[in-house]
Amino acid sequence: MPGLLRGVARTAVVAGTATAVSNRVSRRQAGRWAQQDMAAEPAPPPPPPPAAPTTTSMDDRIAQLQKLAQLKEQGVLTDEEFTAQKQRLLAG
């Protein structure tokens, strides 16, 4: 009987060790495949550079404000939209 228990215990240790090694190898290989997948995927293109601020003359701004006022009078723009666009024009 002691020989049988020793054999069972030895088999359990060997099986446990084999399982642990197999799991470790699988995780390592999965990590390598993930790195290869990441390297194979093209990087997304960089975002376009911000637009250069345009300088508009005062006459252009006045004309744009008049167009905005007309759109507001026609009901195309709400008061909030008109105010937001007006502030954007005056800030730029």
Question: Can you describe what's shown?
Answer:
- By secondary structure, the protein is mainly α.
- The protein folds into two domains: 42 residues; 34 residues.
- Helices cover 74% and strands 0% of the residues.
- Helix 2 packs antiparallel against helix 3.
- The longest helix is centred in the first third of the chain and has 39 residues.
- The mean pLDDT is 78.
Distance linking N and C termini: 92 Å
Low-confidence stretches: none
- Strand content bin: under 5%
Counting structural domains, the number is 2
**Approximate shape:** rod-shaped
Q: Sheet bearing the most strands, described?
A: none
Rounded Rg: 36 Å
Q: Which structural class matches the secondary elements?
A: mainly alpha
Keywords:
2 domains, mainly alpha, 92 residues
Short description:
By secondary structure, the chain is mostly helical. The protein contains 3 helices and no strands.
Could you outline the blueprint of secondary structure elements for this entry?
Blueprint: H1 2-40, H2 58-73, H3 79-91
